[in-house]
Design goal:
Radius of gyration of chain A: 22 Å
CATH architecture of the largest domain in chain A: 4-Layer Sandwich
Structural class of chain A: alpha/beta
Order of helices and strands of chain A: EEHEHEHHEEEEHEEEHEHHHEEEHEEH
CATH superfamily of the largest domain in chain A: L-amino peptidase D-ALA esterase/amidase
Number of helices of chain A: 11
Oligomer: homodimer
Distance between the termini of chain A: 9 Å
Largest interface: A-B, 73 and 73 residues
Number of strands of chain A: 17
Chain lengths: ~425, ~425
């Protein structure tokens, strides 16, 4: 497993403040590696409101099944996340391991099993030995502290080369509330939530209905607008918890989707989600370039997103970008195969602000030198206008390098 | 451009006999490289019946537009193919270059422009200088000979590392007829006919309607069941021509799809198409392993093919195979993301006859050593039963290697 930090990593990490209502502990349970933390526990001493979005995979992991069932209750007292083993495709042993973990967590947090949420990430198909958590969870629940967000982000990493954290402060009716989020990638990333785990906590006082609605809406242009390799994982989980801890400082309870006081919160939340999503792309396996693809002029926003993802998932486009080649022909190919309306003879394509194609052919003013210079940048913006209507979408991906192949050619070993 | 011959190349090439009714010439027109043949002319002295299947891309190349228009006439006197430039995304200049090429070919073959078919393969977005064919085509038409199939296959190569040829002999009502085919790959290969060109000629006497029907049916389990990198080209073209030359030796005219005399011909044709399709996969860019993926137990044959292609196109599955890793977890992931019904807890997976997964978890009898040994073979068979119904499909792909990335990172240069 490569441990060189991605060249696209942020130069500094946000400092996440403690949030009222949630305590954090991590431990080294020795699931796969002996020398790192691989177990995370979040304890909500007073039940937090829970919302979640999960993988669309028809072969979901045992923890995903478990969370889906508990989400009906909508109350969280504990979240347990382990890295090193996905507990996916593990049959009855897998559901049993999930149940056992939840039982131990419920005991440790002194709550009901229906108030426990779980996530596992790592190799698929290996039985998870939940017994390894037995000695750890009770002590973790006792020792958990508010101020351990960076440790939390580190404990859930797998092939990630850096921890992913983000925080926002926002005003609700005169009271400052906070949103903290952590995430992990870094392979099997594609729309429909691919082996991506992200956990967001706010101290705002928000009802389950509103929280779930916000999460569904926000995911569209953040986690569901990124792709590393088009592969969707069995374990994708995005969960958000509202502790309501800020209520003691005067934050109002929000229980109506139409409540206007939620406006700034929504903006800040969506911004945080996009921030975390971008951090995942920047840590895509083997990534050397961050690529932002915007499609305009499509029949609808949805059509624009399909075309943008067709470009973002094309191995030929991604290898060209790895090779710093402004190969607009492959972008045309990817537009053509997307199956959405596009007028070939009106197509326009820009790389980093340099127009390379106009009216369905090479821009007469095209300069290979100018395009080549743009392609050397660590972030490449591709803009495509397909000449049909007003639909627009932006997605993010990374290049496809030899390192991606190397990392994934021997991941299990 | 790499010129190392694929390790999966056939150890010998079929020898294609001349066919009555078609003459062949090749030339070095200097389109991209000075030192190789890049222009192919097939001349049908008596009009042949023509059928074709083309890319589903919404941004098709100028030659594809041209062929589609002429196919309505259904008669062919000449086929011109060039490599080195795809004449795709070349706007009005592109259509003009196609028209000019056809005009010159029509003059050379002394026929109507509506009886000329064209194909171009190579880089996208560069204007094609059809003027380069001006001096060549007239001479080629004169000098063309029946016995030049291998030269034909070589002239249409791009990143292919070997020419692709196949031939079959078959009896129709007591008379032997022949089918010869050539093809080229090798990137942008995916269902819906990706930068793949293939031309098949028979001396049988078959009507246009029957020929087109055969082609449509045969493509489903041959060219549309292979994928190298999921990228669909702007230029995919499969054309078939029936010269009727065998009629002079007593071959009957077949003009009814229900004519039983066509049975053996159909079998031989489909077999030849599959042969050529497999040759394309074996020459996939950077390929080191041929992979045959069979899905059984799906809700329908169509559902089985969707699942099989989801596995075949998964970068994580393909890199694992490149790494000789029997990573069944990634196969589960690909089944899960396919969006077709599959019963997770009934899933069974075999690699090369070794069952690795049973009832939704690792086979209790699984032996890592046995699986590892199978993965070292140059051809890997993956069998997945999804436990739903009787639907079945087989597709073929290759592994994803660092060489693929290298080849495509600097293709234009």
């Amino acid at each position: 497993m490569t441990k060189t930090i991605s060249p696209l990593a942020p130069t500094s990490f946000a400092e996440l403040p403690g949030l009222e209502g949630v305590r954090i502990a991590t431990a080294a349970a020795g699931i796969k590696h002996a020398d790192r933390t691989d177990l995370l526990l979040l304890v909500f001493d007073k039940a937090a409101v829970a919302a979640g979005v999960f993988t669309q995979s028809l072969c979901p992991s045992a923890p995903v099944d478990f969370c889906r069932a508990n989400l009906a209750g909508g109350r969280a007292r504990a979240l347990v996340v382990n890295s090193g083993n996905a507990n996916a495709f593990t049959g009855k042993k897998g559901s049993e391991a999930a149940r056992l973990t939840a039982e131990m967590a419920a005991q440790a947090a002194n709550c009901d099993m229906g108030e426990v949420f779980l996530a596992s990430t790592g190799v698929i198909g290996e039985p998870l030995n939940a017994g390894k958590f037995a000695g750890a969870l009770a002590g973790m629940a006792k020792e958990a502290l508010q101020d351990r967000w960076m440790e939390a982000a580190r404990a859930i990493m797998t092939t990630d080369t850096y921890p992913k954290v983000a925080t926002r402060a926002v005003d609700i009716a005169g009271t400052e509330v906070r949103i903290n989020g952590i995430a992990k990638g870094a392979g099997m990333i594609a729309p429909d939530m691919a082996t991506m785990l992200s956990f967001i906590v706010t101290d705002a006082d928000i009802s389950r209905d509103v929280l779930q609605t916000l999460l569904h809406e926000g995911v569209e242009n953040s986690f569901n607008a990124i792709t590393v390799d088009s592969d969707t994982s069995t374990s994708d989980t995005l969960m958000m918890f509202a502790t309501g801890g800020a209520a003691t400082r005067g934050a109002p309870a929000i229980s109506d989707r139409a409540d206007e006081r939620i406006g700034a919160f929504k903006t800040a939340l969506f911004d945080l989600m996009k921030d975390l999503a971008h951090q995942i792309v920047r840590d895509g396996e083997g990534a050397r370039k961050m690529v932002e693809i915007t499609v305009t002029g499509a029949a609808s926003n949805k059509a624009a997103k399909v075309i943008a993802l067709s470009i973002a998932n094309s191995p030929l486009v991604k290898t060209a970008i790895a090779g710093e080649d402004a190969n607009w022909g492959r972008v045309v190919m990817a537009v053509g195969k997307a199956g959405q309306e596009a007028i070939r003879d009106k197509l326009q394509i820009w790389f980093g602000g340099i127009r390379v194609a106009l009216n369905g052919e090479r821009d007469p003013d095209y300069s290979e030198a100018a395009a080549a210079s743009v392609m050397k940048e660590p972030k490449i913006d591709v803009l495509v206008d397909v000449g049909v209507g007003n639909g627009k979408a932006t997605v993010w991906t990374c290049d496809l390098t030899k390192e991606y192949v190397a990392i994934n050619g021997d991941y299990r070993s």
